[in-house]
Specification:
It is built from six helices and 31 strands. With 444 residues, the protein is mainly β.
Length: 444
Amino acid sequence: MFKTIFNILLVLAICFTISMMPLNTALFDSPLIGRDDPSDTYAASEYEVLIDENEDALSSNTQVEFTIKGILNKDFSDDYVRFDFMRDGETIKTFKASDFEMQREDSTEDDFSLIHYALNADKKTTGLDPGPYSIRIYVEDETAISMKDASTDLLYMPDGKFTPATSLAASPGMLNFRLYYPDNQYMYLVPVTRTVPQKDSIVRYLVNTLSEGPKESMGLAGGSPIPFIPYIWVSGTVSTLSLPAGDLGVYDDGSSVSMFAAESIKGTLRDNLGIEEVQVLVNRQAADTALHGMDISRPWNTEAGPRAYICLETETGKLVLAPARLEADSYEDAINQMFEAFKTGTVNETKSPNAIAFLPSDVTVLDYRISNKTITVDLSKDISKLYGERTDLANLAVEALMNSFTSLIDVDKVVLTANGTPIQFEDYDFSEPLARPIFINPER
């Protein structure tokens, strides 16, 4: 069934809108998906789409754009380009490209033919019932296109923009706080770098700044992620804070808000002050529980363990990196889970509707080794060259890998290579080990 996997280059730039909000659920599956019927499917890739109930929705709401690159035979036609609309793994309806009103542009590049398609897959055009579907695009017949010496790649190019860590620099008289805020789904905490004027009483200043909540432009959950903390002090790597007695409002009402409050303060104190333990008191007295029944009888450990830094697209169209804790029992297990998250947006069998899969499915780890607190990871492709003019996405991929790998135990620096050659991209030169970027998700 798997004849020639690396055969066509498909580059998809997909833009779906539901109630004026983008649907970011691109999937990166095997570049070849087998079928039950006798014919073979070449260069198939799958992602999700939601058919809007409104038949009069603007055509841009379900605009699909993709490019096929290969050596086309003279009888190639739009009839060979197929779309399967699926639910629960079953094909509901199959279309040809010629079934749609579309725009088609032909060009050539390095002896390859390129065909760029732009079409609309809304309710009126497809005749499908409203709701979510998986849609699969592929070339059906191998006689329509020569597979020799071609390649397969699939990439979802989100509309959102990523702000690289390197766009922010330290300035005299200013501080850069790394603050943790929940995403609007309350599934992940997003670290945000905020630049503020330097002041005394750094601990109180840090907590007050966190309590201000994220800027609206970031598209994260608004308001303070933590309750009012009237007292907080630090001794070495231990921070002690006191909550007020009585009802803490929303922070006592639900486990999600209380859990995110605890993780927000732990992450913020750890990343800015090097805090390893947080002791929580109530009215400056020891207590057993607080924050919707959370155990505070013993200090909280701030060690987060291995994490995959996944990509989220926020309500304001920003792309941000968010650490997702992994349930891994070895370095190899953790790295495998990281790459699964990069390619699918899924962590521990859970996927946020805001998650973006940013790494193509055929990017693999050829080898890795850890020595002197440096991890060297050899990749099958240079990830800095996968995104064309979208250098922000190349920065996103590099930062995601660096932050993820340095979350491993006893790993402080990273070397990234592609087939043994150090990756060099803008401010990153991996001929030498590099520490993770100081900043992340600069607040704009």
